[in-house]
Amino acid sequence: MSVSDADIAFALELFDGLGPLNTRKMMGGLCLYRDGTIFAILHSDGSIWLKGAGEFADRMTAEGWTRWTYAREGKNTTAMPYWRLPDAMLDDPDLACNLASEAISQLT
After folding, report:
1. Which candidate in 49, 55, 77, 89 could, as Cys together with 82 as Cys, close a disulfide (CB 3.0–4.6 Å)?
2. What beta strand segments (E) does 1-96 contain?
3. Whole-angstrom Cα Rg for the chain
4. For the chain, what percent of residues have pLDDT higher than 70?
5. Global pTM?
6. CATH at 67
7. Burial state string for 16-52 with b = 16 or more CB within 10 A and e = fewer than 16
8. Are strands 67-71 and 77-84 parallel, antiparallel or unpaired?
9. Digit-coded pLDDT (tens) for 66-86
10. Quick one: which of 49, 37, 39 has its CA closest to 7?
11. CA 20, CA 32: separation in Å to the nearest integer?
12. What is the DSSP letter of 66?
Protein backbone atom coordinates (compact mmCIF):
# COMPACT_ATOMS: atom_id res chain seq x y z
CA MET A 1 0.00 0.00 0.00
CA SER A 2 1.30 3.46 -0.79
CA VAL A 3 0.44 6.90 0.51
CA SER A 4 -2.60 8.52 -1.04
CA ASP A 5 -2.54 11.81 -2.91
CA ALA A 6 -4.98 13.17 -0.30
CA ASP A 7 -2.63 12.25 2.58
CA ILE A 8 0.32 13.84 0.76
CA ALA A 9 -1.67 17.03 0.18
CA PHE A 10 -2.70 17.08 3.86
CA ALA A 11 0.88 16.68 5.11
CA LEU A 12 2.19 19.38 2.76
CA GLU A 13 -0.58 21.75 3.85
CA LEU A 14 0.05 20.97 7.53
CA PHE A 15 3.73 21.91 7.20
CA ASP A 16 3.23 24.74 4.70
CA GLY A 17 4.46 27.28 7.28
CA LEU A 18 7.96 25.79 7.13
CA GLY A 19 8.53 27.12 3.64
CA PRO A 20 9.48 25.07 0.59
CA LEU A 21 9.52 21.32 1.20
CA ASN A 22 10.76 18.43 -0.88
CA THR A 23 9.34 14.92 -0.78
CA ARG A 24 10.44 11.48 -1.82
CA LYS A 25 8.37 8.33 -1.91
CA MET A 26 10.09 5.44 -0.20
CA MET A 27 8.88 1.93 0.74
CA GLY A 28 5.19 2.81 0.51
CA GLY A 29 5.60 6.03 2.51
CA LEU A 30 6.75 9.56 1.89
CA CYS A 31 9.76 11.37 3.35
CA LEU A 32 9.44 15.13 3.95
CA TYR A 33 12.54 17.31 3.70
CA ARG A 34 13.33 20.94 4.53
CA ASP A 35 16.58 22.27 3.08
CA GLY A 36 17.77 18.72 2.41
CA THR A 37 17.06 17.47 5.94
CA ILE A 38 14.47 14.77 6.46
CA PHE A 39 12.25 15.80 9.35
CA ALA A 40 9.15 13.63 8.96
CA ILE A 41 7.74 10.52 7.37
CA LEU A 42 4.19 10.02 6.15
CA HIS A 43 3.25 6.35 6.48
CA SER A 44 0.88 4.64 4.09
CA ASP A 45 -1.81 4.64 6.81
CA GLY A 46 -1.75 8.47 6.80
CA SER A 47 0.10 8.83 10.10
CA ILE A 48 2.84 11.45 10.34
CA TRP A 49 6.04 10.74 12.25
CA LEU A 50 8.55 13.44 13.25
CA LYS A 51 12.23 12.59 13.38
CA GLY A 52 13.78 13.16 16.76
CA ALA A 53 17.26 13.73 18.09
CA GLY A 54 18.78 15.16 21.25
CA GLU A 55 16.53 17.10 23.61
CA PHE A 56 13.61 17.01 21.18
CA ALA A 57 13.63 13.20 21.15
CA ASP A 58 13.81 13.21 24.95
CA ARG A 59 10.83 15.58 25.08
CA MET A 60 8.67 13.43 22.77
CA THR A 61 9.49 10.37 24.84
CA ALA A 62 8.72 12.18 28.12
CA GLU A 63 5.40 13.41 26.71
CA GLY A 64 4.44 9.84 25.82
CA TRP A 65 4.48 10.10 22.02
CA THR A 66 4.42 6.72 20.26
CA ARG A 67 7.82 5.74 18.92
CA TRP A 68 8.11 3.83 15.66
CA THR A 69 9.33 0.30 16.34
CA TYR A 70 9.43 -2.84 14.28
CA ALA A 71 10.50 -6.43 14.78
CA ARG A 72 11.70 -8.95 12.26
CA GLU A 73 11.02 -12.58 12.84
CA GLY A 74 13.54 -14.02 15.26
CA LYS A 75 15.11 -10.61 15.96
CA ASN A 76 14.81 -8.04 18.74
CA THR A 77 12.51 -5.06 18.36
CA THR A 78 14.21 -2.06 16.77
CA ALA A 79 13.27 1.52 17.68
CA MET A 80 13.51 4.06 14.88
CA PRO A 81 14.19 7.78 15.56
CA TYR A 82 10.60 8.78 14.68
CA TRP A 83 7.65 9.61 16.92
CA ARG A 84 4.00 9.74 15.81
CA LEU A 85 2.56 13.24 15.70
CA PRO A 86 -0.39 13.12 18.14
CA ASP A 87 -3.81 13.42 16.48
CA ALA A 88 -4.60 16.66 18.35
CA MET A 89 -1.65 18.32 16.60
CA LEU A 90 -2.96 17.38 13.16
CA ASP A 91 -5.59 20.11 13.53
CA ASP A 92 -3.08 22.83 14.41
CA PRO A 93 -0.68 23.73 11.56
CA ASP A 94 1.09 26.37 13.69
CA LEU A 95 1.86 23.84 16.42
CA ALA A 96 2.83 21.17 13.88
CA CYS A 97 5.23 23.59 12.17
CA ASN A 98 6.72 24.67 15.50
CA LEU A 99 7.35 21.04 16.41
CA ALA A 100 8.81 20.30 12.99
CA SER A 101 11.10 23.34 13.35
CA GLU A 102 12.30 21.97 16.70
CA ALA A 103 12.95 18.60 15.08
CA ILE A 104 14.89 20.21 12.23
CA SER A 105 16.99 22.31 14.63
CA GLN A 106 18.10 19.15 16.45
CA LEU A 107 18.93 17.39 13.18
CA THR A 108 21.09 20.05 11.54
Report:
1. 49
2. 22-26, 29-34, 37-42, 48-51, 67-71, 77-84
3. 13
4. 99
5. 0.91
6. 3.30.1460.30
7. eebeebebeeeeebbbbebeeebbbbbbeeebbbbbb
8. antiparallel
9. 999 988 888 899 999 999 999
10. 49
11. 10
12. P
